[in-house]
């Protein structure tokens, strides 16, 4: 399939929505695979408002073949002449009665294998056994986020609200003239659809009000290796379909 229009939209507007990348059967297989895993260790996080699995492919390697079906592989390989690879995979389950919300923000931090003070790498964190760091702007700009929706998602159960074209302003602080969240767009996505997004796009997520679950697999891709001293904590090559 030709995904050139969707790819052009994410570059221009900071997001794009693609329906039916997965069939209902494929989605059910993905859900079953996740539900059958033993939920223990630092990669698993659970509160009354959210359940999450970090390093998803590392923890459930069987998911790789299910996630990277032919359509998904074509989409990633069609994004650039350069070879993109997976750098982060997280599963989010927002329960049907969740009061959890996230205000507008950009995704600036990635997980690396260790901490080494390095030029242009800043704002180090250490959470749940993982080092996080803010990347140089050129690597952030080339990151692509892909969100696989395992449930129908709309404004009533936590669909992302984004500010179109906000990724074009680079890193935006709340006191910046570019911090304007009045022109939000709600990204409704059907079950089996995906949302492409630039992580520098301002985005938020509201509370659940309709009693419906919102399960999403959040994947991040990049084409850059890090500075010689550091490596991505997660690295999975996208297998060629040629």
How is this structure best described in words?
The chain is α+β, with helices and mostly antiparallel strands and 242 residues long. The chain has one domain: Sandwich (Jelly Rolls). The chain has six helices and 15 strands. The strands form three sheets. Strands 1, 2, 3, 4, 9, 12, 14 and 15 form an eight-stranded antiparallel beta sheet that branches. The longest helix has 12 residues. The relative contact order is 0.26. The mean pLDDT is 89.
Poorly predicted regions are none
By CATH, the architecture is named: Sandwich
The gyration radius over C-alpha positions equals: 17 Å
At the fourth level of CATH, the homologous superfamily is q2cbj1_9rhob like domain
- Can you give the helix content as a percent range? 10-25%
Order of helices and strands: HEHEEHHHEEEEEHEEEEEEE
What is the CATH C level class, in words? Mainly Beta
Write a concise keyword list for the protein shown above.
242 residues, alpha+beta, Jelly Rolls, eight-stranded antiparallel beta sheet, 6 helices
Gist of the model:
The protein is of the alpha+beta class and 242 residues long. The protein has helices at 4-13, 24-35, 56-59, 63-67, 70-77, 137-141, and strands at residues 15-18, 44-46, 51-53, 85-94, 102-105, 109-112, 122-127, 130-134, 144-149, 160-162, 185-186, 194-197, 203-205, 214-222, 236-237. It has 6 helices and 15 strands.
């Amino acid at each position: 399939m030709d995904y050139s229009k969707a790819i052009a939209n994410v570059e221009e507007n900071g997001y794009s929505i693609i329906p039916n990348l997965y069939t209902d059967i494929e989605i059910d297989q993905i859900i079953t695979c996740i539900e059958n895993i033993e939920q223990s260790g630092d990669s698993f996080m659970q509160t009354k408002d959210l359940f999450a699995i970090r390093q998803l492919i590392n923890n459930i390697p069987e998911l790789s073949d299910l996630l990277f079906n032919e359509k998904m592989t074509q989409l990633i390989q069609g994004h650039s002449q350069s070879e993109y690879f997976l750098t982060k995979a997280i599963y989010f389950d927002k329960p049907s009665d969740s009061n959890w919300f996230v205000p507008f923000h950009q995704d600036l931090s990635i997980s690396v294998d260790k901490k080494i003070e390095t030029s242009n790498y800043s704002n180090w964190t250490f959470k749940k056994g993982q080092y996080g760091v803010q990347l140089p702007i050129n690597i952030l700009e080339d990151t692509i986020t892909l969100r696989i929706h395992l449930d129908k998602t709309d404004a009533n159960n936590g669909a992302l609200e984004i500010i179109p074209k906000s990724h074009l302003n680079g890193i935006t602080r709340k006191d910046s003239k570019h911090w304007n969240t009045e022109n939000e767009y709600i990204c409704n996505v059907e079950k089996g659809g995906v949302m492409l997004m630039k992580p520098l796009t301002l985005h938020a997520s509201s509370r659940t009000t309709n009693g419906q679950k919102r399960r999403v697999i959040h994947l991040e891709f990049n084409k850059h290796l890090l500075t010689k001293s550091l490596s991505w904590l997660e690295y999975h090559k996208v297998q060629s379909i040629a």
